Amino acid sequence: MNIALIGYGKMGKVIEEIAESRGHRIVGKSNSQNPIISLNFSTIDVAIEFTAPHLAIKHIEYCIDKKVPIIVGTTAWDDQFQHVKDYVTRNDGAILYASNFSIGVNIFFDINRRLAKLMSNSPEYKTNLEEIHHLEKIDAPSGTAVSLANDMILENKNYSSWTHQKNIKPNPLDKQIAITSYREDGVPGTHKISYKSDIDVIEIKHTAKSRQGFALGAVIAAEWIANKKGVFTMQDVINI
User: Fold this and answer.
1) Looking at 66, 126, 134, 137, which residue is catalytic?
2) What is the rounded (10 degree) CA torsion for 156, 118, 236, 26?
3) Nearest 10 degrees: CA dihedral of 99, 104, 110, 115?
4) What is the pTM of this model?
5) Counting C-beta atoms within 10 Å of the first and last residue's C-beta, which end of the chain has fewer, N or C?
6) Taking 80 as the threshold, does the pLDDT of residue 240 lie above it?
7) Percent of the chain residues topping a pLDDT of 70
């Protein structure tokens, strides 16, 4: 499979290494010095995009216009998701978007939804969510934390929104989930969800050891999307 990397930072380099180890070829690399329009899309089977929120939409539309499926790992553009979905559908394209491509994290998503549903009938437990990432992480809360919180809201009738602060736990209003973000040197990504009552604490936690898991998931997603049309997520890939 011929892959184009839209964004060639630390994640792009790890994706390149894993893709080549699985027998694929990197036939194009786009970054600030080499814009997407410079790539030869006639040779590209799929694009993998990890850039910045203000760039993601135009990259998606460009790939869809070129009839190339795109895997998108950039987060913090959810407010334009409906526009992207309509654009992909209207142009008979294919996109797979995930706030986190790690197989382990996507299993964690499923555990979180199931736990949130179980806790819905126990309002005496108050929940909060913590996420820790490396210093270069731009968005806060992380896209993964937002996905976790939104899933909790869908499954647990005791919550209807979330609130966020950096470095200190926010004081949530009624029906709010408190999210706290920390930025520390060399931390690939940790997410912890706690349910606390007066008598005990229930916690679930996912800790990434490196970027390898995220990159491997993105390559697996690229392999999976071949010959498909539509809007997909990692839940489709791992069939949860």
Assistant:
1) 137
2) 80
3) -110
4) 0.85
5) C
6) no
7) 100
